[in-house]
Specification:
The structure holds two protein chains of two kinds.
Chain A lengths: L11 E2 L2 E2 H29 L9 H13 L8 H27 L10 H28 L15 H31 L12 H8 L5 H25 L7 H10 L36 H9 L5 H5 L1 H4 L6 H15 L19 H5 L6 H5 L7 H13 L5 H13 L17 H4 L5 E2 L8 E4 L2 H5 L4 H13 L4 E3 L9 H5 L3 H18 L3 E4 L2 H10 L6 E3 H11 L25 E4 L13 H8 L5 E3 L28 H11 L4 E4 L2 H13 L7 E4 H9 L1
Parallel strand pairs in A: 3-5, 4-5, 4-6, 6-7, 8-9, 8-10, 10-11
Antiparallel strand pairs in A: 1-2
Helix pairs in contact in A: 1-7, 1-9, 2-8, 3-4, 4-5, 5-6, 5-7, 8-9, 9-12, 19-27, 23-24, 25-26
Chain B lengths: L1 E5 L2 E3 L22 E3 L1 H17 L2 E7 L5 H10 L3 E5 L9 H14 L4 E5 L9 H9 L3 E11 L2 E8 L3 E8 L2 E5 L11 H6 L7 E2 L1 H4 L33 H14 L5
Parallel strand pairs in B: 1-4, 1-6, 4-5, 5-11, 6-10, 7-10
Antiparallel strand pairs in B: 2-3, 7-8, 8-9
Chain lengths: ~700, ~260
């Protein structure tokens, strides 16, 4: 008869029977966790409505991709791999850990063994090693993106290390429990449980070889007690800090925003036509956020990737998406405490956020493209702006263009009747006639020009190049002319929803009256507005997509670049060997996924040498922002555009090609500010194509 | 404190290309967009801030026609409690003294502790504020860029040419003309204007105010003879040389023109 080591449920701990003790610990621990989570959820119940229960299959797919497959983690390779291993370990260990915890309070012990047991042992070992490596990274190497600037409070390292310690203790106590049990059985003539070579248990068993039986028994029971207590302390600690994401990420990812490029309505439960009856617009106090946005605050893992990518943060503007979220989370924790009643109602602006902070965002979406948990930022910023606009808190620099948009339909305050004057330029009007669609000309295609291309002397060149391209490929197209008003894209994103709706209504009517079957635009902001903010529009394409299609079909032939001379030198001297780079406009790339069409067009120009900047495609670095962002005067150390042209220079390029009038404005300004005139040029894709078509 | 702000609707200089009409006696008004005269907007904002601090109401008044209601609604959307239109066919063509007479007649019908005007209308001559004070026999201060409320008095600041400042004490009731820059006026969005779109705006005519016949016609003593766009002067002067030389020249120029001391 083999004597078995006493199981925790049968043992006695300080005169308390194990089963009773662990039953109490488990019940109390679970109740405590449930209470904390319930308290955490109360603010969500008071939050605004948010419609997130639609399209369950799409949501499930996202859950599999971003939760189970940890899709975005490898974008930061080291941290990503560590996280994937920890995550996978936690998933594997879930059954093992739950049954281990249950064992103490049960008469029927036995954690699942066999193959699963062996895999779980290796998983625990990997988790332990990852916790150690992560602790060394956090504690010794200290990657800069985890740093907490003084204005945002104290370092978060202690919390991170505490959690890693919890994880390590769980793994070691689990290993010690198994190892001591196996050792005991070996010593008492039983068949010891086989521990996989190099697992934590295997190593510990080796270390216990000379420990006497009585101490093995104490170790065995002690390890179990420590594991059980640590498990519940850790569980209850999760909702108190950034590790709440371990629980909430599942829900945050399932309920994640599905419609890229779109902006949430003012109220999910109020149709546009009834908005006049809504007393207050946007977010002014914490409970004005939607429940999903509150869940986002809870789910932030404080990984710092958003702020690492944020251009506003990079140029020293008073905005860091990471702390935007952390400040809101801390606010919620403080105002919905564990005990006592919740209090809310203080304005967020002037409280945790400053006006400049909220205006600093260009809505480029770099943070959202990076966040492994798909946390939303733009909708929250826009909601806060809606609240500020409603309260009249708009900087003077933005009031003028907004007023001009209201009275003239463009932010520059130019006369409506001059909106189509760009088509009258002498050398253009002769060979490219652009019809004005002010009442059924039977055109198939509408070229939606938008304000900056219509009125800015320099950007009108994009309009003429686009018209020539459409004209030369035999497109039956026209423009709305003086009837067109600003698309309102950035009016909406700067929080002036009512003005946006007026602009949208006007343009929608004009577009419908024109009877066109499709719309082409050269302005990614207009493209995004027509695509996502307007309703029931004919199909919309950006000009780069049209060009790419026509190049593929052979309808556009592009001449080789001249050997020397090109666009890389302002003074017309031969440069030769120009190197091109493509700058992804935020509203073409990140918000609409159009990365390849413009690149394909460039690569179709014989002799064109193209390099990629380190930050390209969905990691493109915003030029400084379009629309109303051109008018806003931010507090910053440096211009975003200057940083961007320096990135182009670092990539070895001397010609920046972009596909957005606002990017071009910002790039050309930045080249001057950076003193790189003559060394760097910026050109729009349409301008380049038009030159190569001749 | 009951505050009255006198405002005016003017062609918006930042959103219009001002050109002469074909007769050459006025600007072409066909395509103009209008807004509230900018200094008046600062005056309304200041009035709102005083009321937010120490209670009371803000009333905005303008002399004009139905079109001018637009600016009253805008200022009401900003926070003014009442808008009042002083309108009568006999008011058209009134000069500065005429406008001041109409406003003075309105002021005496109510009880206002403080009357604010913008420092001048963008298409005006900066005379109504002073004349209004004289007609009412109220104390007057012009170019005011700060206001502090005391018991029955105000402490006001004025900027003096060259950047110096002086502080005055002035008895209430009084008239002040407000300089831009005294504050940062709040934004008025389309939504705010819509919310006051159906608030009735009381209108007073000549008979209501008792100013029959004494503001137009023979009463107009100041008449415009001509209006023209002066020919363009010499273009900008481009400084030449390397950066250090250009900076040197610029400093000399700024010193010579009084921009640097």
């Amino acid at each position: 008869m083999v004597e078995a080591i006493s199981s925790p449920s049968q043992a006695t701990f300080w005169f308390i029977h194990g089963r009773v003790l662990f039953w109490m610990v488990n019940v109390l621990g679970s109740a405590c966790f449930a209470y904390i989570v319930a308290r955490r959820l109360t603010p969500l119940l008071r939050g605004q409505r948010d419609i997130r229960f639609d399209r369950p299959l799409v949501r499930l797919g996202r859950l599999l991709q971003f939760w189970l497959a940890q899709w975005r983690q490898p974008r930061y390779l080291t941290a990503g791999i560590i996280h994937i291993l920890l995550f996978a370990g936690f998933i594997i260990l879930a059954i093992h850990t739950v049954s281990l915890v249950a064992q103490g309070a049960s008469n029927h012990p036995a954690a699942p063994g066999g193959l699963y047991g062996a895999i779980a042992d290796y998983a625990a070992t990997v988790v332990f090693l990852c916790a150690v490596i992560a602790a060394i990274r956090r504690g010794i190497f200290k990657p800069s993106r985890y740093a907490v600037p003084a204005k945002y409070g104290k370092s978060h390292t202690a919390e991170a290390l505490l959690v890693l310690a919890f994880i390590a203790i769980l793994m070691v106590s689990d290993g010690l429990f198994e190892a001591s049990g196996a050792m005991w059985q070996g010593q008492h003539g039983g068949t010891p449980e086989v521990l996989g070579p190099l697992t934590l248990g295997w190593v510990l068993k080796g270390a216990l070889a000379s420990v006497p039986a009585a101490q093995l028994r104490s170790l065995h029971l002690g390890a179990y007690l420590i594991h059980d207590l640590t498990f519940f302390v850790f569980l209850c600690f999760l909702p108190l800090g950034k590790h709440f994401h371990v629980v909430t990420s599942l829900f945050t990812l399932y309920f994640a925003k599905l419609d890229r490029g779109a902006i949430k309505p003012v109220r999910w439960d109020v149709p546009d036509e009834q908005l006049d009856q809504v007393k207050s617009f946007g977010v002014k106090t914490f409970s004005d956020f939607t429940w999903k946005h509150m869940l986002d605050f809870y789910s932030c893992a404080d990984c710092g990737r958003c702020s690492d990518q944020c251009p506003a943060n990079a140029v020293g503007r008073p905005l860091s998406p990471r702390f935007f979220t952390i400040k809101a989370r801390d606010y919620s924790f403080q105002h919905s405490p564990m005990w006592g009643s919740a209090h809310n109602g203080q304005p967020l602006i002037g409280g945790i956020y400053s006006e400049d902070e909220i205006w600093s965002c260009t809505t480029c979406g770099a943070c959202e493209a990076e966040c492994p948990l798909l946390i939303e930022y733009i909708d929250k910023i826009v909601d806060l702006r809606r609240g500020m606009v409603d309260d009249g808190k708009v900087p003077q620099s933005l009031q003028k263009p907004l007023k001009a948009l209201e009275s003239r339909g463009n932010p520059f305050g130019k006369m409506e009747k001059k909106r189509a004057d760009w088509v009258k330029a002498k050398d253009f009007a002769q060979d490219c006639k652009v019809s004005i669609l002010d009442g059924g000309h039977g055109a198939d295609t509408l070229y939606f020009v938008d304000s900056i291309t219509s009125f800015d002397d320099r950007m009108q060149s994009i309009g003429r190049a686009t018209a020539r391209i459409l004209h030369s490929t035999g497109e039956n197209f026209g423009i709305l002319g003086t009837v067109e008003k600003d698309s309102g894209h950035d009016v909406r994103r700067f929080g002036e929803e009512t003005l946006f709706m007026a602009l949208r209504e006007h343009n929608t009517e004009a577009i419908k009256a024109s009877g066109v079957q499709r719309i082409v635009t050269s302005d990614p902001h207009a493209y995004n507005a027509l695509q996502h903010d307007y309703k029931d529009m004919p199909p919309v394409e950006h000009i780069s997509q049209v060009i790419a299609r026509k190049v593929r079909a052979g309808d556009i032939q592009l001449n080789p670049l001249p050997e020397s001379n090109a666009y890389g030198n302002g003074d017309g001297n031969a440069v030769g060997n120009d190197v091109y780079t493509y700058h992804d406009p935020c509203y073409l790339g990140r918000h609409n996924g159009i990365y390849d069409a413009p690149r394909d067009v460039l690569d179709a120009i014989p002799g064109l040498k193209r390099v990629e900047m380190q930050r390209s495609r969905d990691r493109s670095f915003c030029c400084g922002g379009g629309g109303l962002a051109l008018f806003y005067e931010p507090k910053e150390d440096q211009r975003m555009g200057v940083k961007r042209v320096q990135m182009a220079a670092e990539a070895g390029a001397n010609v920046i090609v972009t596909a957005c009038p606002f990017c071009l404005v910002n790039m050309e300004d930045a080249i001057k500010v950076a003193g790189m005139e003559g060394k760097m040029t910026a050109i729009d894709l349409t301008e380049l194509v038009e030159k190569q078509m001749r | 404190m009951e505050i009255l702000v006198c405002a005016r609707r003017v062609p918006d200089t930042s959103e219009n290309e001002i050109e002469m009409n074909s007769a050459g006696n006025d600007i072409a008004r066909d395509d103009l967009v209008y807004s509230v005269n900018e200094p008046d907007n600062y005056a309304v904002e200041e009035a709102l801030r005083i009321v937010e601090r120490s209670g009371g109401n803000v009333t905005v008044v303008t002399v004009g026609g139905d079109d001018d209601e637009e600016i009253l609604r805008r200022e009401m959307a900003m926070g003014a409690k009442h808008g009042v239109l002083l309108s009568d066919q006999s008011f058209s063509g009134a000069d500065g003294r005429g406008i001041a007479t109409i406003l003075a007649a309105f002021v005496t019908k109510g009880h206002y502790d403080l009357i604010l005007t913008g420092v001048q209308a963008e298409d005006g001559a900066a005379q109504v504020g002073g004349m209004l004070a004289a007609l009412l026999d109220y104390p007057f201060a012009s170019l005011v860029d700060s206001i502090e409320t005391l018991e029955g008095k105000l402490k006001i600041g004025r900027e003096i040419e060259g950047g110096n400042r002086e502080i005055y004490e002035i008895d209430l009731p009084c008239v002040l003309s407000i300089q831009t820059g005294i504050n940062e006026p709040r934004y008025v969005g389309m939504r705010g204007i819509r919310q006051v779109a159906s608030v009735p705006i009381p209108t007073f005519g000549a008979a209501d105010l008792g100013v029959n016949g004494n503001v137009t016609g023979a009463a107009v003593k100041v008449k415009r003879l001509d209006y023209f766009v002066p020919p363009l002067g010499k273009g900008a002067e481009m400084l030449k040389g390397d950066t250090a030389e250009i900076v040197g020249q610029l400093i000399e120029l700024l010193k010579a023109k009084g921009g640097l001391k």
